[in-house]
Amino acid sequence: RRDVLLLTPWLAPIVWEGTFSRDILNAQYLQKNLVTGVVTFAVEKYVQFIQGFMRSANKYFLAGHQVNFYLFTDNPEKIPPLQMAPENHLIVIPVQNHSGWQDISTHRMDIISTYIHSQFQYEVDYLYSIDIDLQLLAHIGVEIIDALVGTISSWQFTPHGEDKAYETHPEPRAAIPEGQWDFHYTASFYGGSVSEVYKLTRACFEGVMEDREHGIEARWQDESHLNKYLLQHRPTRLLSPEYCWDAEL
Q1: Whether 161 contacts 184, CB under 8 Å
Q2: Which residues span the domain enclosing 102?
Q3: Is 246 assigned to a binding site?
Q4: Cα separation, 149 vs 240, whole angstroms
Q5: Each residue's pLDDT tens digit in the chain (249 positions)?
Q6: Transmembrane ranges (predicted)?
Q7: Strand order in the sheet with 185-193
Q8: 7 within a domain of the structure (yes/no)
Q9: Is 146 annotated as a binding residue?
Q10: Which of 38, 46, 185, 212 could form a disulfide with 150 if both were Cys (CB 3.0 to 4.6 A apart)?
Q11: Would the annotation count 41 as a binding residue?
Q12: Domains in the chain, number
């Protein structure tokens, strides 16, 4: 493809549909006998999205490969019956609800890093966090696999997209000085190796907590801190906005 940017200034690939051979990548991935995990949260009203997300993810996310889906929810009794593919496993983990979606968003990073340390690192090789209110509409395969992976926000491709993207106030830990940003990443879909995701989620949570101690909150909560982290620790692979397109656009 010649219509899109395929490489970052630090030489990390940007994955677009039509820029890779899924058959070749699948063959390479299968030889390594890897397991990939997906973390998603269904708290309060988001329980309604479980069936739609799980049906589409079971069908389209790394189809034919081993995937552990870790579903955190405050209403495990409301999970509908789900028929999983033989290579997929659904693990339901009860989680305490926090007041307000900002608190849920904040504690999500803490929960992921805590479970990586206690459980996930022994069960999966790669881990991806995906929002429960997304629906997969086509295959997402092993082309997403790399050490540290961010997904470019679809808002970056709109006029004045940067107005929605970055923390511009200097007080929060997530602040990015004007002119220093390059890509804006969505917090709805990110991941990588278990060790790299642990470092990312731990750093983001600590940044949020430090801000809170000073009575500060970043404009886009955990997404602001995610973008600051990925500016300081460059992703080894970027996914195009095709992987997480905002329906508002």
Answers
A1: yes
A2: 14-243
A3: yes
A4: 11
A5: 889 999 999 999 999 999 999 999 999 999 999 999 999 999 988 999 999 999 999 999 999 999 999 999 998 998 989 999 999 999 999 988 765 545 666 689 999 999 999 999 999 999 999 999 999 999 999 999 999 999 999 987 665 555 555 545 545 555 666 666 789 999 999 999 999 999 999 998 888 777 776 666 666 567 888 998 999 999 999 999 999 998 888
A6: none
A7: 14-15, 237-239, 148-152, 185-193, 126-130, 36-42, 67-73, 88-94
A8: no
A9: no
A10: 185
A11: yes
A12: 1
pTM for the whole structure:
0.91
**Could you tell me the CATH number of the domain that includes residue 44?**
3.90.550.10
Strand 185-193 and strand 126-130: pairing? Answer: antiparallel
Q: Residue 28: inside a domain, yes or no?
A: yes
217 catalytically annotated? no
In the numeric block, which tokens belong to residue 39?
Answer: 């973390």
Q: Which is catalytic among the residues 77, 223, 242, 248? A: 223
Q: Is 46 annotated as a binding residue?
A: yes
